Structures are given as C-alpha cells and as structure tokens.
Amino acid sequence: MNEGPPRSIRELLVEMKNTSDWMVDLSLASIYFEDEELARLVHSLENKMDDLTYSFFQSSAVVSRRREEARRITGLVQIAVSAENISNACGDLSSLVLRKTKIHSVLKEALAMASERLTKVKVRENSHLAGKKLGELRLPSSVWVLAREKGGKYEIPEKETVLEVGDLLVVKGPHESIRKIRLMAGEPPLLSKTSPRLRSMKKTLAEMRDAAVLSVDLAYSSVLLNLPEPAQLVREIEKKFDILSYKLWSETLRLAKKEKEGLTSILETARYLERITDSADYIVDFILRGIEPHPVLTEAMKEVNEKISRIQVKPGSILENRSIGELDLWATTGSYILFIQRGEKFIYTPSRKTKILAGDYLVVRGAYAGIEQIRRLAEATVSEA
Questions:
Q1: How many Cα atoms are found within 13 Å in the side-chain-facing hemisphere of 275?
Q2: CATH 3.30.70.1450: does it fit domain 115-185?
Q3: What's the rounded Cα separation, in Å, for the pair 337 and 308?
Q4: Which letter, b or e, does each residue of 8-20 get, where b requires 16 or more Cβ atoms within 10 Å of its Cβ?
Q5: What pTM was computed for the model?
Q6: What is the DSSP string of 282-293?
Q7: 140 burial class (0-12, 13-18, 19+ CB within 10 angstroms)?
Q8: Which residue intervals of the chain bear CATH 3.30.70.1450?
Q9: Contact at 8 Å (CB) between 345 and 281?
Q10: Which pLDDT tens digit goes with each residue over 302-327?
Q11: What are phi and psi of 309, to 5 degrees?
Q12: Dist CA 107 CA 96 (whole Å)
C-alpha cells in the first residue's frame, strides 16, 4: 500500500461507495459476457478496496481515542467491514469465470432481463463517441460506462478519458438508454434473445440482481447523507431478497431433477448476491439502531446537498397514471426516481414507459428543493394545481 497524506473519512467513503458500485456491476458483467479480463479487473479493484478499508480503519482510529466515542465508532467499523465483505463477494463471483465454471443460460438471460442491461459497445470511426472525452458526451443520465478495453486490458474510464476508434466499452443502463448509446457509437440495436423456458427462475434471479445493486447504493447513501429512510429501505430490500433467495433455491432444486450442468453457477451467484445484500444491511445497522453518527461523519455530511426520500402518490394526484417519460422529473425538478414500491413489488430502475399509479411509493433522489416539489405534485390533485 502506498503511504500518502491522510484522507478524510468522507473522501474515503465516497471512493469506497464508487468502488463497491463498480465491483458489483463488473462482477456481474464478467459472468454475463464470460469475460476473464473483466474478472481480473474486479480482482484489481478488490485490492484497491483492501487499501481503502485499511485507510478507513486508520482514519477512524485517529478520531476515536476517547472512551465515550466507543459506541459511535461502531458505525465506522461496520462500514469498513461491510465494504470489505462486498468486495470479497464480488471477487468470488468473478472467480467463477476464472475457474471456467459452466455459466447456465438461465443466469445470462436473467441478467438480460434485469432493469439495467449490460452491453459492449465498440467505438466506430465517425461515430458520436470517437475522439471525445467521456465527460463531454451527452449521454443519458442513467447510462454508466463501466469499463474501457484497450490493447486487450480493461480499465475504469474517467471523465477526462478520450474515447478512440476501436475502444470497446462495457456499458450498463435501462433499455432505452442502451439503445441510445449504441446508436451514438454506430452499433446496431440489441436483439432480445430470452426464451420462455424457466421464465419464473429468470425473473427471480433478475430481481435478486436488482435488489443487490440497489441495496449497496442506498446503504452508502444513507450513511453519507445521514438519512434513516434509505437505511430502512435497505432493511426492507434485504428481507425481500431472503424470500427471493428461498424461491430460487427451491426452483433450482426442482430443475436439478432434470438437468445438473451449470446449476452451480446459479446457486453460487445467488449466494454471493446474498452476501452483498447482507453487507449492505450491516452498513446501515447502526443508523437503524438509532446510534448517533460519529462527529467526523456528521461534519462530512454538512457538505452534501442531496437527499433520498420515499413519497406516496395520492389518489387523484397530478402524477397518477402518467409515465415517467411524460413527466420528465429530472428536467423539471433536478431529481429522479430510483425505484417504485408498489405494494409488495419493487420496480427497480423504472423505464420511461412505466406509469405511476395511486398508492405507489416513489423513492426519489436529488436536491432537497426538487424532492419537495415532487412531494407537492404527488399530494396535489389536478383541481388544486
């Protein structure tokens, strides 16, 4: 590990969050594409997370020398331990590819059914991507360029990274956004190849993937923003995941009576995703216990002007029966819908075509003023507008 000037708790937390996000997505991408180089990139990020966790422990120890701080320091320790556990689970997941484990078609099709799709995009000559910095591109806000392959090696691109002809990009995002970036790169649209076979199992796996990815994002956000609401959502998602996990294991055992090849990849993926959601739940445990955040976290949170909130749509509301694309909340309020809770159902990363119904809970992220504007829209009837 390279020794350098001490880094702030907030700086380390943000980088740990970003690294965790990358690792979860890239480990799943390595499975989806059966790409050993992507798996190796995950392992290099695992080493990076080891360093970040060590630095986090060091910074936590420096600020916790008094006995009365012992209880509050527990939250910092839980964050560090959980980050390491998420990192290890992602490393183990990507190792399935490195061990050349047979990846079952059900698993790959499930990842194709998830709310956020994965694709590889090659930068073509004369395309809208060639010769431009990643940060200069007008990509949809929901698109995330996970990695760039150049010379047979993958790297994590930055805003200043200049995309060159021949670069291969690993991208995730909703279906509409994936279509747009492929068009910008000069690539044909993706064709859906999912079959009706074992559809229930695929749907369960897709939901488990969505739950794991979202729980990590919400967990770190609840800590960075000191918000109990996303922490409670993480706990609810974790409980939902347990139900999905039991269902998947039952379906897989039934399938084992007919076929066995490749089933290991399904069960192993489910196990690693469960470790990820359990770790996300552990991150927010101290918040849900009502333990006051350590002063270093409280001080760091003063810099943040972001919020996550859950808003219920009232019957007759201006939002009722209107699609997300029609409302275009990002353009009008500077906030966006992370997911929708509809009864017992979670709609992760809803598409532009998703209609909002009365009784829906919208989990919204953005600036405080924008979220309050959405809250007013959700509670006001058309006649009151």
A1: 18
A2: yes
A3: 10
A4: ebbebbebbbebb
A5: 0.82
A6: HHTHHHHTTPPP
A7: middle
A8: 115-185, 305-384
A9: no
A10: 555 567 788 999 999 989 999 988 88
A11: -145, 155
A12: 13
CA 54 → CA 48, 176, 234, 298, distances in Å? Answer: 10, 40, 25, 21
**Scanning the structure block, which residue is given the tokens 């392992």?**
43
**CB within 8 Å of 100: residues ≥ 6 apart:** none
* Class of the domain covering 305-384: alpha beta
Domain 9-110+195-299: top CATH class: mainly alpha
Residues 374, 335 contacting (CB under 8 angstroms): yes
- For the segment 220-262, what is each residue's pLDDT rounded down to a tens digit? 888 877 778 889 989 999 999 999 999 999 999 999 988 888 8
CB-based contact 261:40 (threshold 8 Å)? no
- From the list 275, 260, 246, the residue with the least C-alpha distance to 24 is 275
